[in-house]
C-alpha cells in the first residue's frame, strides 16, 4: 500500500517536472522575441532595474505560496542568466552572419570528459550548427589546428580562481595571429575518481593534470605518501584509471567526466578553494564584431618603452578614458632578458568612442601593441536583491 502511494506521488512529480520544462522552453521563446525587439531598436541586452523589479515581485509572490525567498532568488538568477546569454548569442550571430556554420569544428585539451570538453559543450550549446569535437594533447597542438584550418575554433583555459593564470596559454597567444572571439567561466568541481570499490586509505597512485594537482594541494598533503603522476589532461588521467583494475589507483577530475569512463567519486570538493572556477577563451582565425548592446570585453597585448613609469603611463590612458581594467598579466619576452609583455583585459567595445581613443593613444606610446580580440562578455553578475528588503516593500 505504501509503495503504491509513493509511486503515485512520484508520477505526479514527474508530470509537474515535465510541465516546468515546457514552461521554461516557452519562457525562453518569449525572451528570444524580446531579443528581436532589442536588435531592431538598439536596446541594451541587460536592464538590471527591470531584473531587480522582477526579482522583488517574484520573491513576494513566492512567499504567498510558501517558497523561501532565497530559493526563489537562486532559481531566477539561473533563469535570468540563461536569458541574457541566449539574447547575447542571438545579437552576436546577427552581427556576424559569416560565422554561422553548419558544422563547428572545435579543438580543446584532452578527450571526452576533460574540463575543456565540458566547457566546449557548454559554450557551443548556444551556437547554431553541429559540434565536431577535436581532442588535442597540448595547447600548441590546439592553436595549430585552428591556424591550419583543421578546426574552426579552439577553447583554451586561461585562468583559474585557485591556481591563477595558465602561463603556457598566454605564451601561445603572443605568437599566434588568431583572435579571441568569446569567453566563458565554468565551475571546476574536483572529485577523487576510482573504477571499483576502494577507500581513500588504499590509494597509492594518483593521476591528474598538473593544474589540478596545484588546485588540490591541501588534499594531496592530507593523503600523505601517495605517488602523483601528471597527465596531459584530466581525461587522460581518467582513461588511465579506467583501463586498470588496480584498486590503489585513482584520478582527480569531474564526476560527470568520470562517469563517461565508468568511474565513480569516493570524495568530492577537493579544491583548496571551494568556489573554484576556470575562465576559458574561444579563439578563431577571424575576429568578430560585437554589437554595442552587448557587454564586451577586449584583450590587449603590449610592451612598453624601457623608461621609468612607462607602464603607469599606459594604464593612465585607460583611466583617462574611463575604461575599467579587469586583468593585468605579464610574461617574459623570448630572447629579451628582463623585458615583459603585458596582457590586459578591459571592459569595453573597440567600436565605442572612448575605447577607440584609448587604443590610438596606447599604440602611440608603446613599443608593441596589438588587440587580441574584442568579444561578448559572458561573466553575468547576478542582480542583487535583499530578500528581507523585498518582502518589506
TrEMBL record:
List the subcellular locations.
Cytoplasm
Q: Where is the Prephenate dehydratase domain?
A: 105-285
User: Entry's Pfam families?
Assistant: CM_2, PDT
- This entry's Enzyme Commission designation comes to 4.2.1.51, 5.4.99.5
Q: Which UniProt keywords apply?
A: Amino-acid biosynthesis, Aromatic amino acid biosynthesis, Cytoplasm, Isomerase, Lyase, Multifunctional enzyme, Phenylalanine biosynthesis
Gene3D superfamilies found in the cross-reference section: 3.30.70.260, Chorismate mutase, Periplasmic binding protein-like II
| Highest taxon of source | Bacteria
Quick one: which pathway?
A: Metabolic intermediate biosynthesis; prephenate biosynthesis; prephenate from chorismate: step 1/1; Amino-acid biosynthesis; L-phenylalanine biosynthesis; phenylpyruvate from prephenate: step 1/1
Identification of the protein by name: Bifunctional chorismate mutase/prephenate dehydratase
Instruction: Report which reactions are catalysed by this protein.
Output: chorismate = prephenate; prephenate + H(+) = 3-phenylpyruvate + CO2 + H2O
Q: Which SMART domains does the UniProt entry name for this protein?
A: CM_2
**Gene that codes for this?**
pheA
Q: What does this protein do?
A: Catalyzes the Claisen rearrangement of chorismate to prephenate and the decarboxylation/dehydration of prephenate to phenylpyruvate.
Traced from the root, the source organism's taxonomic lineage reads: Bacteria, Pseudomonadati, Pseudomonadota, Gammaproteobacteria, Alteromonadales
Molecular-function GO terms, alphabetical: prephenate dehydratase activity
Q: Where is the Chorismate mutase domain?
A: 1-91
Amino acid at each position: 500500500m505504501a509503495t503504491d502511494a509513493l509511486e503515485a506521488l512520484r508520477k505526479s512529480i514527474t508530470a509537474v517536472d515535465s510541465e516546468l520544462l515546457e514552461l521554461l522552453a516557452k519562457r525562453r521563446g518569449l525572451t528570444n522575441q524580446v531579443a528581436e525587439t532589442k536588435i531592431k531598436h538598439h536596446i541594451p541586452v541587460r536592464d538590471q532595474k527591470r531584473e531587480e523589479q522582477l526579482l522583488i515581485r517574484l520573491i513576494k509572490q513566492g512567499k504567498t505560496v510558501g517558497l523561501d525567498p532565497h530559493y526563489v532568488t537562486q532559481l531566477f538568477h539561473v533563469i535570468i542568466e540563461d536569458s541574457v546569454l541566449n539574447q547575447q548569442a542571438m545579437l552576436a550571430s546577427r552581427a556576424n552572419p559569416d560565422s554561422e556554420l553548419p558544422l563547428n569544428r572545435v579543438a580543446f585539451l584532452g578527450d571526452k570528459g576533460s574540463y575543456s570538453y565540458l566547457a566546449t559543450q557548454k559554450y557551443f550549446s548556444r551556437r547554431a550548427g553541429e559540434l565536431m569535437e577535436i581532442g588535442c594533447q597540448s595547447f600548441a597542438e590546439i592553436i595549430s589546428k585552428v591556424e591550419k584550418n583543421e578546426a574552426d575554433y579552439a577553447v583554451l583555459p586561461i585562468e583559474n580562481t585557485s591556481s591563477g593564470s595558465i602561463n603556457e596559454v598566454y605564451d601561445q597567444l603572443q605568437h599566434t595571429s588568431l583572435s579571441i572571439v568569446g569567453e566563458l567561466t565554468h565551475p571546476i568541481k574536483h572529485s577523487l575518481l576510482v573504477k571499483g570499490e576502494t577507500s581513500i586509505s588504499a590509494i597509492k597512485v594518483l593521476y591528474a593534470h598538473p593544474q589540478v594537482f596545484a588546485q588540490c594541494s591541501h588534499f594531496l598533503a592530507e593523503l600523505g605518501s601517495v605517488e602523483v603522476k601528471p597527465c596531459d589532461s584530466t581525461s587522460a588521467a581518467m582513461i588511465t584509471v579506467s583501463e586498470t583494475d588496480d584498486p590503489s589507483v585513482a584520478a582527480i577530475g569531474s564526476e560527470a567526466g568520470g562517469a563517461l569512463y565508468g568511474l565513480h567519486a569516493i570524495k568530492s570538493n577537493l579544491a583548496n578553494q571551494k568556489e573554484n572556477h576556470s575562465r576559458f577563451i574561444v579563439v578563431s582565425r577571424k575576429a568578430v564584431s560585437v554589437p554595442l548592446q552587448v557587454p564586451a570585453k577586449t584583450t590587449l597585448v603590449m610592451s612598453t618603452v624601457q623608461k621609468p613609469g612607462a607602464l603607469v603611463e599606459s594604464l593612465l590612458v585607460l583611466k583617462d578614458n574611463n575604461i575599467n581594467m579587469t586583468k593585468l598579466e605579464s610574461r617574459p619576452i623570448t630572447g629579451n632578458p628582463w623585458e615583459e609583455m603585458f596582457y590586459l583585459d578591459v571592459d569595453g567595445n573597440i567600436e565605442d568612442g572612448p575605447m577607440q581613443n584609448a587604443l590610438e593613444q596606447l599604440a602611440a606610446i608603446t613599443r608593441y601593441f596589438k588587440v587580441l580580440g574584442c568579444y561578448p562578455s559572458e561573466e553575468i553578475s547576478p542582480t542583487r536583491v535583499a530578500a528581507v528588503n523585498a518582502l518589506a516593500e
